[in-house]
């Protein structure tokens, strides 16, 4: 049972035009605790009609919101930020219960998500265009930045608070209004966050949240894709869905930000500080139980340091405590659902059948209180023939590939359609620049495993998508550029 200090944070209806409403057809769907695989709440199961109502509200709110002085928008965002932090404990409990991550990590996610709200509150007041030197006497050339309009945000389950915060905050900072659909596994955090935005004083219609089950999600999203009033779609999730959004939004040529799948390489060169590399891999691979798009999926270790690295890594991984958020010691929570555990098990079985060896883990964790646990795992002898080398495992599995030279490892690291994040450890400054330039990804951790920050541009290249979240670039993605040319100035 989920107990909160502020029970009103637990919402079960859509937020449309400042009102909490049931789905128009009265349908609901269950929200499940991944730790027990049991339903503990239910929320509105919306359809295309609800999706259109949300756009009606966002489109009606847009003119006044976009004209509001940036300082006022910033103040509202700052109030929202303060309320998020004031409710850190409750929000973390909601996140842990619907998503499964240990409470300590969930608290970290609340702070991480809030940092985007604060950052974009500050950036709102720094939106500026250009005055360009005139080419012809008597003319002034000016460049303005304007909000794109209504934004549709479709967000994932792995960071139920941070991902929606880092889409809604820049949209509002830019002067856009939002319709958002959180993942069907984790709708409660988004609803709680929207409740706090309302409490902060956001005008009605500026933030609208529509929840839908797996079955009805396509109806909601397709309604937004077809609606010419929606001028931008921002999505975090899988590459196949990202491609669908790109195709379907073409008819109305919406602006798109797509943060899609990854297949991050993590490279340990022979000149690396091995302890730092193990620390970095623990931080990047086992965060959120390995369920992040930027998690290393392939760990390349130089032949001469391979055994020492694997020994140190296996000791750390084997000591990780697996359990539900209700256990203070938990470091790896349950996976999001049974399908996720099945995929991890399939990847490990495939790897072993193709010659990999399990150093630690390699099996489901059987607990009386729930079925969705998988043991943190280190595999050696990984090769490109294995499924885990080309598909995202999205779980706590570190497959180690042995390599012998720099050119070979760069070629293998880039041999993927994805290009979200990469990591490498080296102490040679010339190699650092060479490798950083050669890796085909949008983000690179150099002697660092934790790279995400509100001040940095988060996003990928190749089939990992386009657009950036965080940093000034993250605000730019919610604006278009308008050029004014004034003549007859004498
Ligand atoms: C993601 O997994 O999509 C986001 C992870 C992050 O923000 O670090």
TrEMBL record:
Pfam families: Aldedh. The active site is at 259. It is an enzyme of class 1 (oxidoreductase). GO terms for molecular function: succinate-semialdehyde dehydrogenase (NAD+) activity. The keyword Oxidoreductase applies. GO terms for biological process: gamma-aminobutyric acid catabolic process. Belongs to the aldehyde dehydrogenase family. This is Succinate-semialdehyde dehydrogenase I, NADP-dependent, similar to gabD. It comes from Cupriavidus taiwanensis (strain DSM 17343 / BCRC 17206 / CCUG 44338 / CIP 107171 / LMG 19424 / R1) (Ralstonia taiwanensis (strain LMG 19424)).
């Amino acid at each position: 049972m989920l107990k909160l200090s502020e029970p009103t944070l637990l919402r079960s209806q859509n937020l449309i035009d400042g009102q909490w409403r049931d789905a128009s057809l009265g349908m609901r769907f269950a929200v499940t605790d991944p730790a027990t695989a049991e339903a503990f709440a239910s929320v509105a199961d919306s359809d295309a009609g609800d999706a259109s109502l949300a756009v009606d509200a966002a489109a009606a709110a847009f003119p006044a919101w976009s004209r509001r002085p940036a300082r006022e928008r910033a103040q509202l965002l700052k109030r929202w930020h303060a309320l998020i932090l004031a409710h850190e404990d409750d929000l973390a409990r909601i996140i842990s219960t619907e998503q499964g991550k240990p409470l300590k990590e969930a608290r970290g996610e609340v702070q991480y998500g809030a940092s985007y709200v604060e950052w974009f509150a500050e950036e709102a007041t720094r939106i500026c265009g250009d005055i360009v030197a005139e080419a012809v006497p008597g003319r002034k050339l000016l460049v303005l930045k304007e909000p794109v309009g209504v934004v549709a945000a479709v967000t994932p389950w792995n960071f139920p608070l941070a991902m929606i915060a880092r889409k809604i905050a820049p949209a509002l900072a830019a002067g856009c209004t939002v319709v958002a659909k959180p993942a069907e596994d984790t709708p409660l955090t988004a609803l709680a966050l929207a409740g706090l935005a309302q409490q902060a004083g956001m005008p009605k219609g500026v933030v609208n949240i529509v929840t839908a089950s797996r079955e009805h999600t396509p109806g909601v999203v397709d309604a937004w894709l077809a609606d010419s009033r929606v001028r931008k779609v921002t999505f975090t999730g899988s590459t196949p869905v990202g491609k669908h959004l790109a195709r379907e939004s073409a008819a109305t040529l919406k602006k798109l930000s797509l943060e899609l799948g990854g297949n991050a390489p993590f490279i340990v060169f022979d000149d690396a500080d091995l302890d730092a590399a193990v620390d970095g891999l623990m931080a990047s691979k086992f965060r959120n139980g390995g369920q992040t798009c930027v998690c290393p999926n392939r760990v390349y270790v130089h032949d001469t340091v391979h055994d020492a690295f694997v020994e140190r890594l296996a000791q750390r991984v084997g000591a990780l405590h697996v359990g539900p958020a209700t256990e203070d010691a938990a470091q790896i929570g349950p996976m999001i659902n049974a399908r996720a555990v099945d995929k991890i098990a399939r990847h490990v079985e495939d790897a072993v059948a193709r010659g990999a060896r399990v150093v630690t883990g390699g099996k489901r964790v059987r607990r009386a209180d729930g079925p969705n646990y998988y043991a943190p795992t280190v595999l050696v002898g990984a090769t490109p023939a294995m499924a885990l080398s080309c598909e995202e495992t999205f779980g706590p599995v570190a497959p180690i590939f042995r390599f012998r030279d720099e050119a070979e490892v760069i070629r293998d690291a880039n041999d993927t359609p994805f290009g979200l994040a990469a990591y490498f450890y080296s102490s040679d400054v010339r190699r650092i620049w060479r490798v950083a330039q050669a890796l085909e990804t949008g983000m690179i951790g150099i002697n660092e495993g934790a790279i995400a920050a509100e001040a940095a541009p988060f996003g990928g290249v190749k089939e990992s998508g386009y657009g950036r979240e965080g940093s000034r670039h993250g605000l730019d993605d919610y604006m278009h550029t308008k050029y004014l040319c004034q003549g007859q100035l004498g």
